[in-house]
Every structure is written in structure tokens, then in C-alpha cells.
């Protein structure tokens, strides 16, 4: 076997492999003998099929399999042994590999394109704007007012009002079956649209223009619970036969309301309730600020990093490995792809330079915290031993699902946080005290 590397640039190269009969013949012969022992061919006793018969019937396919297996390992070994830093996976050059006569050829030559990554330099000398959000009295009052509006009991009034939801069967021209839908009157696009539904009762039929009620494909798709592509041709009047009306009555500021929102006996007075809601709001704001700060750090790290990407190779690699992705779409979005590739390489570099390690226990703890938060959101706890054991089983199953992709997703989240923590400690942070509205404005303008 003869393997050579041909570099067309600092970042683009091809690996050429020449195989002689000696490289593969022993493996092919061994595989043919194995087939002969297992083959069940008419006219021969099982396990007694002559190797020559197997070679005539299956020799070519066995040869192809063994050569491909040999090539795969040869390329991997060459990259590892020569310490080539590549991005993506090697791509077979079909035009060079296509004209092969597997029936008669004894010697073969194949080539694979690879994308190389050379030196990566980066700086952690960052200056980041970060924020401390004050929970103002007006914001607190508005939040509590919304909690009261949405925290009461659900009722089924006879006549619809503007804040109600109407469910029923929707008839669309050209479709044989009606669609069961829910109309949130308050979310309709026009005042006229709202007025059509106000006063509706069960078994009423209401005809309305779906495009005036929901003014985008996205909203029409959400309303009908379909994909956007499916609703593009749905236009004009549709007819809803009302089946029921639902209303959330405004809650009263009492112990039942406190318990429903915060959990049993968490607070016992309006003053304590306001303080706890303000605390939760502050924690939510802190998380939003933390996420925004992390994004800024990631963006600045990528912006300051210096590396040369094999752009031609990457464009081809994306098209050939991502289902449904066209060359035109790759070209259109390539700047975003470049940022993703740069971050991937940069994260590996920073982690290696700073000996950042993610252990299995770290992954399981993060997944456990994720499910604990879900249990907490449902008003449950995970303090007792039985529930902790149940949680362990849920985490183990989750991390094994999707062929291990869930595990890698959590792994990358943990490593991301460790890298951001390291960069944050080295960065200059300009912290500002702001209201939530000021923070939202700053984020939108960034």
C-alpha cells in the first residue's frame, strides 16, 4: 500500500492510496472461505460449498467490501499517525474513484479530499458589557396582575368575551374533513376579527377571513397545527362551528392562590408573596443576563481568534453530508456556518490549552438538574430517596437515547459553560444597573 498527501493549499489536501493485490488478497480469500462454510446454495450441502463457487457468485462484492474497509482504516490511521488536524470527515473524490473495473483490475488507486486546520491563535483579553436588572415596582405589579388574570379557575361561559378561547370544528374550502381548532380571541389580528367572535355561543357558525385573522403563514400554521408549507394555499373565508367556550376567571389574592403559584405553604401573606415573586423574577433576569453575557463572550472569542478554514472543502462537505442542503443554500448561509466551525475548533483549542475536562459525572449531574427543574416546575420535589432513584433511571435512559446524541449534547453544554467561566474570569466586565426594559433594548441593539 502506498499513501501520499498532496497539499493544494495550507488548508486543502488530498490523500491518495494505491493498493496492490497483495494488500487485499489474503483478506478476500479469508472472507470467501468464511462464506463457503456458511453459504446455503442450492445443489450443495450447507457448509460444503466450494470456495471457487463462492468466488464466482460473491467474489466481486466481497472484494468491494474488503477494499472499502481497508481504505477506511488506512485513511484514519494516516491522519492519526501524521497528526493531521482536520475538520469534517474525508470525502472520497468520486471522479477519481469511479472508473474501476472490479472484475478485472488487480491494482487500485483512490483519493480523498480533506480539510486541514493549521495554527489557531486566540485572545481572552475581552471587554464585555453585562447587567444587573432591578425588579422595579411597576414590573412586579404587572407580573402579579398577569398571574392573577391567569391563575384562576377555568370556566365554561355560555357567551364568549374578548379574553375567552373558542373551540370548534373549522371547515376549509376544498377539504373534506373539518379541523378541530381553538381561537384565542385576544390574539386575533384585527378589532373586526375579535368582534366576530365576541358574543358567540355553542353551535353558532362563524365565517371569517383566515388571512385577516392570522396575517402570516406562521400564525396560520400554528392555528391549524400544520407546517407552514402546507398552509400557503389556504386563503379566504373559513367557517367555524363553535363547540365550547373557555374562560380563566381572575384569581383572588388568598392562600389558595399563593399555594397554586409558589407551592403549598411557601408564603402566607401578600407581602411574602410579593417578595417571593420578586426573588423569582430576579433569578430569571439573572439567568437571561448570564445567557446574554455568555453569547457576547463566545462572539468576541470567535471574532478575535485567528485561523484559516478550508472553505472550499467545507462547502462541499456540508452539501454531501447534510440531507437536503444545496450548494446555493450553503453559499447563502456560509458566514454563519463559518462562525459555527470556528467556535467548534476554538472550543477544542481552549479546552486543550487549559486542560478543561468533562467527566461522566458532570454530564449526569447536568442532566439530573435539568429534570429536577422540570419536576420543580410541576410543583414536585426530589428530596426523598424513591424519587431520587426514579430520577437516576430517567437520566440514564435519556442519555442513551438518540444513539448517544443526547449525551453529547449535554457534554457540549457542560464544556461550553466551563469555557465561558474561564473566559469570564479573565475578561473585563462593565456591569450596569438597568431595568428589564433597558436590558431588552440593549440586547436588541447589540
UniProtKB/TrEMBL annotation:
Protein location: Cytoplasm
InterPro entries xref list: Trig_fac (IPR005215), Trigger_fac_C (IPR008880), Trigger_fac_C_sf (IPR037041), Trigger_fac_ribosome-bd_bac (IPR008881), Trigger_fac_ribosome-bd_sf (IPR036611), Trigger_fact/SurA_dom_sf (IPR027304)
Enzyme Commission (EC) number: 5.2.1.8
Domain Trigger factor C-terminal: residue ranges: 271-391
Enzyme superclass (EC): isomerase
Glycoprotein recorded as keyword: no
Catalytic activity: [protein]-peptidylproline (omega=180) = [protein]-peptidylproline (omega=0)
Signal peptide (UniProt feature, chain positions): none
Domain (Trigger factor ribosome-binding bacterial) ranges: 1-147
UniProt entry keywords in alphabetical sequence: Chaperone, Isomerase, Rotamase
Family assignment from sequence similarity: Belongs to the FKBP-type PPIase family. Tig subfamily.
NCBIfam families: tig (TIGR00115)
Name of this chain's protein: Trigger factor
Organism: Persicobacter psychrovividus
Amino acid at each position: 500500500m502506498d499513501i501520499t498527501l498532496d497539499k493544494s493549499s495550507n488548508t486543502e489536501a488530498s490523500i491518495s492510496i494505491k493498493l496492490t493485490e497483495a494488500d487485499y488478497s489474503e483478506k478476500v480469500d479469508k472472507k470467501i472461505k468464511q462464506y463457503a462454510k456458511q453459504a446455503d446454495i442450492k445443489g450443495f450441502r450447507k457448509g460444503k460449498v466450494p470456495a471457487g463457487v463462492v468466488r464466482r457468485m460473491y467474489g466481486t462484492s466481497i472484494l468491494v467490501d474488503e477494499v472499502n474497509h481497508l481504505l477506511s482504516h488506512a485513511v484514519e490511521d494516516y491522519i492519526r499517525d501524521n497528526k493531521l488536524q482536520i475538520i469534517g470527515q474525508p470525502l472520497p473524490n468520486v471522479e477519481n474513484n469511479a472508473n474501476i473495473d472490479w472484475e478485472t483490475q488487480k491494482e487500485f488507486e483512490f483519493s480523498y479530499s480533506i480539510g486541514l486546520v493549521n495554527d489557531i491563535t486566540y485572545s481572552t483579553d475581552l471587554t464585555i458589557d453585562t447587567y444587573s436588572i432591578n425588579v422595579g415596582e411597576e414590573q412586579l405589579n404587572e407580573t402579579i396582575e398577569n398571574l392573577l388574570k391567569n391563575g384562576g379557575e377555568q370556566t365554561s361561559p355560555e357567551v364568549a368575551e374578548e379574553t375567552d378561547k373558542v373551540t370548534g370544528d373549522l371547515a376549509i374550502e376544498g377539504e373534506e374533513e373539518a379541523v378541530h381548532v381553538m381561537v384565542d380571541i385576544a390574539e386575533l389580528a384585527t378589532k373586526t376579527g375579535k368582534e366576530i367572535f365576541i358574543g358567540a355561543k355553542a353551535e353558532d357558525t362563524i365565517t371569517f377571513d383566515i388571512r385577516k385573522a392570522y396575517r402570516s403563514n406562521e400564525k396560520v400554521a400554528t392555528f391549524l397545527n400544520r407546517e407552514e408549507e402546507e398552509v400557503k394555499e389556504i386563503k379566504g373565508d373559513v367557517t367555524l362551528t363553535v363547540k365550547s367556550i373557555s374562560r380563566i376567571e381572575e384569581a383572588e389574592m388568598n392562600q389558595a392562590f399563593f399555594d397554586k403559584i409558589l407551592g403549598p405553604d411557601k408564603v402566607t401573606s401578600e407581602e411574602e408573596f410579593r417578595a417571593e415573586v420578586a426573588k423569582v423574577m430576579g433569578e430569571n433576569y439573572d439567568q437571561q443576563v448570564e445567557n446574554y453575557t455568555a453569547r457576547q463572550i463566545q462572539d468576541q472569542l470567535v471574532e478575535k481568534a485567528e485561523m484559516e478554514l478550508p472553505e472550499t472543502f467545507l462547502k462541499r462537505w456540508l452539501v454531501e453530508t447534510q440531507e437536503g442542503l444545496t450548494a446555493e443554500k450553503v453559499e447563502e448561509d456560509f458566514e454563519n456556518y463559518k462562525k459555527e466551525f470556528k467556535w467548534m475548533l476554538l472550543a477544542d483549542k481552549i479546552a486543550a490549552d487549559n486542560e478543561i475536562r468533562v467527566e461522566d459525572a458532570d454530564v449526569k449531574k447536568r442532566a439530573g438538574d435539568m429534570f429536577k427543574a422540570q419536576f420543580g416546575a410541576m410543583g414536585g420535589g426530589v428530596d426523598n430517596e424513591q424519587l431520587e432513584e426514579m430520577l437516576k433511571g430517567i437520566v440514564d435512559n435519556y442519555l442513551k437515547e438518540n444513539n448517544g446524541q443526547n449525551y453529547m449534547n449535554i457534554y457540549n453544554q457542560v464544556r461550553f459553560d466551563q469555557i465561558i467561566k474561564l473566559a469570564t474570569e479573565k475578561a473585563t466586565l462593565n456591569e450596569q444597573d438597568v431595568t428589564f426594559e433597558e436590558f431588552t433594548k440593549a440586547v436588541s441593539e447589540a
